[in-house]
Amino acid sequence: MVGEIKVEGVVKRFQQQNAEEVIALSGIDLRIETGEFVSLIGPSGCGKSTLLRLIAGLNGADEGKLYIDDEEIKKPSYERGLVFQDPMLFPWLSVYDNVAFGLKARNIYKANHAEVQKFIDLVGLSDFSRSYPHQLSGGMAQRASLARALVNHPKVLLLDEPLGALDAFTRMNMQDELIRIWKERGTTMIMVTHDVDEAIYLSDHVIVMTPRPAKIERCIEVQLARPRARNNPEFLSLRSKILEILHFTGTVTEPNYYL
Fold first, then answer.
1. CATH code of 204's domain
2. How far is 203 from 199, CA to CA, in rounded Å?
């Protein structure tokens, strides 16, 4: 196994400043197979990002356990790469040095220096390796962030709304890039998104979460062949089904890609 995730009976609570307790996650059970692309979708504030942070090892569960390849997740690890909506590049470092940063921090750069340019090339930034973050577009900066995560060869790549700040056309192009990288690397990918179309376009399974305290309402398998057409009747039918399950409007983004 390389990159299988299991979440068993996970509960996560937070204490607010007024001492009131908020239950973010309530009894989450989930299994994600090696090499799957899975999206988490649900209302804002329902706990999608919280679950992602637990899988990353950045926070601990109050109840239940999480595993990667049957090893309990207790702390962060380079085996679980994390990409946020904000690329969070170091502004004083070039693209090359941003991507190399993790290898240098782990003292393995000398033995793996060729990997840096390899992953810069993989995300399509070959001509920008010496550029600085302020010289990059939003999409290019997010590509650099992806390369920085992938250079560590993570078993699992965790994506917290990585395309949410991009314009529609850049976002669609980046979705295709994610699929290309996923197919080439075979990395398990788990993505938080508010965009139903994006979830269907990218995923093998779409996990629909309830409002807080969050539980898993439904796990929907997406059996559409790739590449997927957003105006395909089966795509639109699945979209309507997921929106119906969500039981609300106004929170989930509904881009008119097909108009």
1. 3.40.50.300
2. 6
